[in-house]
UniProtKB/TrEMBL annotation:
It is found in: Cytoplasm. The gene is pfp_2. Residues 7-246 form the Phosphofructokinase domain. Catalyzes the phosphorylation of D-fructose 6-phosphate, the first committing step of glycolysis. Uses inorganic phosphate (PPi) as phosphoryl donor instead of ATP like common ATP-dependent phosphofructokinases (ATP-PFKs), which renders the reaction reversible, and can thus function both in glycolysis and gluconeogenesis. Consistently, PPi-PFK can replace the enzymes of both the forward (ATP-PFK) and reverse (fructose-bisphosphatase (FBPase)) reactions. The record marks 109 as: Important for catalytic activity and substrate specificity. It catalyses: beta-D-fructose 6-phosphate + diphosphate = beta-D-fructose 1,6-bisphosphate + phosphate + H(+). Its cofactor is Mg(2+). The record marks 135 as: Important for catalytic activity. It comes from Sedimentisphaera cyanobacteriorum. Non-allosteric. One of its GO terms (biological process) is fructose 6-phosphate metabolic process. Its EC number is 2.7.1.90. The active site is at 138 (proton acceptor). HAMAP family: Phosphofructokinase_II_B2 (MF_01978). This is Pyrophosphate--fructose 6-phosphate 1-phosphotransferase.
Length: 404
């Protein structure tokens, strides 16, 4: 294995803990006997091709350590779809800077990028060790029990829906319903996580709409009526990518990004939450709210799960350890063992070739038969990841007898 320099990049949307992975890579790469210098891609592979490369070894130890609790993407990110003609240029830059180790932190599209670069380098005879480090709030990466970034975003969703549900309960004489939209094009992990603070049947949320299940307008409106009749208000959580049985998105956006993904709720379009709001208001004459957080769950460091921070760092650390052993063409994964009361995890690997082309929707056993809420099995999976939820006061509302 050739000695040389290392390059690190971040891609796609950030998470509250992506910089913990970055800290893990930098700290351990700087200690490696096989790595001479540690460089960073400014704004991902797009910036790298433009020559925007920084010396991470010149950063202070205190700054690198502080990354562990710093939100967003410290190196800057991009959403660039790699072209075949880009890859020879990238290998030329590698050779120019004697880069022999490559670490990219990201999701499916990022794993596709690093996989294609590693495969081309191998076929062209350029020696490179390439290891992917998982990141996504959507939790839809193949091969890993969960993805760094998901537990913190899940906690954000759970707290937000829990607190907004208390507001909706107390304001039900004014607003009869609220719709809360979660990010996640094709996976409803965050939709399910929104129920982690629910203690009683009355508590929010009441209805969940998953991208994994076809949206049925008649069934949805029947669920709304049932919940309103029972609770006097309705708390609804939907995934941004929910669609009808024929594949038509509930959101009417037709804007697409560079990876041909629909940008739900893009300018000029209607988001899923807005569409559900409109159909509920039109059907029942209710007054209500919709709440769309977009990127907030990706960067809310104040709500980050402590376990998430540690596991994200460990994924970065172990990526370097794998590279030092000559392991290439893999993504670091997390394996869990134990149970909900005795959670433990360790890292493993999955081939980049498999991660790059696969996605992980919620399994059937995590969604109830009606398709409108999660099961106890899901909460057993989620609970150790997000930590304990707060317990808020509940008044007894003992009425005062009417005075004669």
């Amino acid at each position: 294995m050739a000695k040389g320099n290392a390059i690190i990049g971040q891609s796609g949307g950030p998470t509250s803990v992506i910089n913990a992975s970055l800290s893990g890579v930098i700290e351990n790469a700087l200690k490696s006997e096989n790595i001479d210098n540690v460089y960073g891609m400014r704004y991902g592979i797009e910036g790298f091709m433009a020559g925007d490369i920084i010396d991470l070894g010149a950063e202070s130890k205190s700054s690198i350590k502080a990354l562990k609790n710093t939100p967003s993407s410290a190196l800057g990110s991009c959403r660039y779809k790699l072209k075949d003609e880009d890859i020879p240029q990238i290998i030329e830059i590698f050779a120019k800077y004697n880069i022999r180790f490559m670490f990219l932190i990201g999701g499916n599209d990022t794993m596709d990028t690093i996989h294609r670069i590693e495969a081309y380098a191998k076929s062209s005879g350029y020696e490179i060790i390439a290891v992917g480090i998982p990141k996504t709030v959507d939790n839809d990466l193949f091969g890993t029990d969960h993805t760094p970034g998901f537990p913190s975003a899940a906690r954000y969703m759970a707290l937000s829906v829990m607190q907004a549900g208390i507001l909706a309960r107390d304001m039900k004489n004014v607003d009869q319903f609220v719709v809360y939209q979660c990010i996640g094009r094709e996976a409803g992990w965050l939709v399910g996580a929104s129920g982690a603070g629910k203690r009683k049947e009355f508590d929010a949320p009441h209805i969940m709409c998953f991208p994994e299940r076809p949206f049925d307008k008649a069934k949805f409106l029947a669920d709304v009526k049932r919940c309103y009749d029972q609770y006097g208000f309705v708390s609804i959580v939907c995934g941004e990518g929910i669609a009808y049985a024929d594949g038509t998105p509930v959101s009417d956006s037709d804007t697409k990004d560079r990876f041909n993904n629909v940008e739900f709720g893009a300018m000029g379009g209607t988001s899923a939450a807005m569409a559900l709001h409109q159909m509920t208001a039109n059907e029942f004459g209710f007054r209500g709210e919709f709440q769309i957080t977009e990127s907030l769950p990706m960067c809310a460091a104040d709500r980050a799960a402590s376990l998430d921070i540690e596991e994200a760092y460990i994924c970065g650390r172990d990526a370097v350890q794998l590279a030092e052993k000559g392991v290439t063409g893999v993504m670091v994964t997390i394996e869990r063992y134990g149970d909900v009361f005795n959670y433990h995890s360790k890292t493993s690997t999955a081939p980049l070739s498999e991660v790059a082309v696969s996605a992980k929707p919620m399994p059937d056993e995590f969604i109830n038969p009606e398709g409108n809420f999660v099961t106890d099995a899901f909460f057993e999976y989620l609970t150790p990841l997000i930590g304990e939820m707060p317990k808020y006061a509940a008044l007894n509302y003992k009425p005062v007898p009417l005075m004669a």
